[in-house]
Amino acid sequence: MVEVSILQKGAVIGFTTTIPVEVIFAGGYTPCDLNNIFVTDSNPMQYIEKAERDGFPKSMCNWIKGIYGVVMKHPVDAVITVMQGDCSNTQALTEILRYKGIRTIPFSFPFDRDRQVLQREIEKLKKALSVKDEQLKAVEEGMSKARSALGVIDRMTWEKRLVSGYDNHLWLVRASDMLGDYNRYNSMARDFIEEVKSNKPKEGVRIGCMGVPPIIPDLHDFIESVGGHVVYNETQRQFILPFKVMNLTDRYLKYTYPYGIFSRLEDIQKEIDRREIQGIIHYVQAFCYRTVEDVILRETLGIPMITIEGDLPKPLDSRTKLRIEAFIELLSNAGDAA
């Protein structure tokens, strides 16, 4: 492991997927979810093109290439790479980053959800960042306030229908690093809550979006434009850790994303029922192993579902638009008939 304790306070520590970000904050560093930098950039293709110029194959997942490009083009002092519980290509990415002189810190979520193993991984991360338990306590209290506000935004999306599916996606997906300042993010979220209270309630078919956060920038807006309203963003909601107050290890044991499809199913079904979801759009990323999970989802969820695949950070293609529009029309007609 590369020691990072020599980093200056405030140094930027990137990561490849959601990790116990509390530890980064407690160490006095600035967390940065590399995925968010990639996909929200005005020209995300530049990162993929950089990776391919440096030898990454075209057949590789573009999220991995995007993350690599972000690290090469943005000042990042170290990167926490999740070796288990996320992308199967992360080990190769880690090796390339180390070869390029980037400090990397490995972290793993145990596939079998073993508490002792996860506790050991968190302790290793705390040691790498020179973090003490007393430092964590204050951070956890502050972050809980921000997560509470994000929970209100989520509830306002499906219960009062005052928040668009895209705004829900954006606020929740950024919870992974809270833009590097959880106190400021909490204030921003609470301002947004006040702002949307005067909104007219959304109408349309209640749609759930499942799978990894989409690389397609206009997915949510298009769904809304053809009569749908996304009331559930599965993985993005998990980023706010919507669980009762508990210690750090237990919080990340309940976080479903890293532990495979079976850990997710119970939570998904609960949210389908609670939010009265009429149909599911399952987003999968091209060349991602998680695509196979689609087989299980189709046979277990019990409500209409279509699967769409994304590859590049570009708007929806015409064929996919037609499929989504037809799906929502079908659900709308079924609702009228009922």
Element layout with pairings:
Layout (H helix, E strand, L loop, with lengths): L11 E4 L5 H6 L3 E4 H7 L4 H9 L8 H12 L4 E7 L5 H10 L4 E5 L6 H14 L4 H26 L6 H9 L8 H15 L8 E7 L7 H7 L2 E6 H5 L9 H7 L6 H14 L4 E7 L8 H7 L4 E6 L7 H20 L1
Parallel strand pairs: 1-2, 1-3, 3-4, 5-6, 5-7, 7-8
Helix pairs in contact: 2-4, 3-4, 6-12, 7-8, 7-9
Keywords:
Rossmann fold, four-stranded parallel sheet, 8 strands, alpha/beta, 2 domains, disordered N terminus, globular, 338 residues
Overview of the structural elements:
The protein is an alpha/beta fold and 338 residues long. It has helices spanning 21-26, 34-40, 45-53, 62-73, 90-99, 115-128, 133-158, 165-173, 182-196, 219-225, 234-238, 248-254, 261-274, 294-300, 318-337, and strands at 12-15, 30-33, 78-84, 104-108, 205-211, 228-233, 279-285, 305-310. The protein folds into two domains: 12-131, Rossmann fold (3-Layer(aba) Sandwich); 134-337, Rossmann fold. Helix 3 packs across helix 4 (62-73) and helix 7 runs parallel beside helix 9.
